[in-house]
Specification:
The complex is a heterodimer. Chain A is an all-beta fold. Chain A is built from no helices and eleven strands. By secondary structure, chain B is mostly beta strands. The relative contact order of chain B is 0.34. The chains are: A mainly beta, B mainly beta. Chains A and B meet through strand 5, strand 9 and strand 10 of A and strand 6 and strand 11 of B.
């Protein structure tokens, strides 16, 4: 069974631009969570989607948004990029959540210049 | 809000030796899950071991075991017979068993970088 895939793996943008990252969960998984990883703040929860609905959102500004499609694939969007948005963005999928294990993708490395 | 603290930013261990990584957490909940994740230099995060708070027995997975002290809110990871492939960042994580908002997000510690010396 294929694992969680994220595209692109690397991305370079400039301040003020917007970016869209994609995550394809493991087949059959319906929950997708996003995390931001930086050296200073560590791993922080962004949001979680289940059956195309956002179930929860972390403490991030409104520039960070996401969505989930009917096939459970998810995208996250960051508008008006700032230098501090440079990070590794990790996506994790699980069957339903709750007691289910979360499987992580390899991440997208975003660099904002 | 729950917090997870890993007080050892870096640790090293000789190959074949045993090492223990520390983790403490703060929560007012009585039911929750604790995890140790491993993130090798390739960046793919993988689950090493999980512990359910209502289970008194410490979880074990081959060379990996935990020492779960619920009253002390401590959750350490012991790696026995360390191997070169164990070198990675290790993250302790907490997840509530309850979900008022319908989400089961993970709260991570800052991580411990483990080096294995041949």
């Amino acid at each position: 069974k294929a694992g969680v895939t994220q595209t692109p793996r690397y991305l370079i943008k400039t301040r003020g631009q917007q970016v869209t990252l994609s995550c394809s969960p493991i087949s059959g998984h319906r929950s997708v969570s996003w995390y931001q990883q930086t050296p200073g703040q560590g791993l922080q929860f962004l949001f979680e989607y289940f059956s195309e609905t956002q179930r929860n959102k972390g403490n991030f500004p409104g520039r960070f948004s996401g969505r989930q499609f009917s096939n459970s694939r998810s995208e996250m969007n960051v508008s008006t990029l700032e230098l501090g948005d440079s990070a590794l963005y990790l996506c994790a999928s699980s069957l339903v959540s709750g007691t289910d294990e979360q499987f992580f993708g390899p991440g997208t490395r975003l660099t904002v210049l | 809000a729950q917090t997870v603290t890993q007080s050892q930013p870096e640790m090293s261990v000789q190959e074949a030796e045993t090492v223990t990584l520390s983790c403490t957490y703060d929560t007012s909940e009585s039911d929750y899950y604790l995890f140790w994740y491993k993130q090798p230099p390739s960046r793919q995060m993988i689950l090493v071991i999980r512990q359910e708070a209502y289970k008194q027995q410490n979880a074990t997975e081959n060379r990996f075991s935990v020492n779960f002290q619920k009253a002390a809110k401590s959750f350490s990871l012991k790696i026995s017979d360390s191997q070169l492939g164990d070198a990675a960042m290790y993250f302790c994580a907490y997840r509530s068993a309850y979900s008022g908002a319908g989400s089961y997000q993970l709260t991570f510690g800052k991580g411990t970088k483990l080096s294995v010396i041949p």
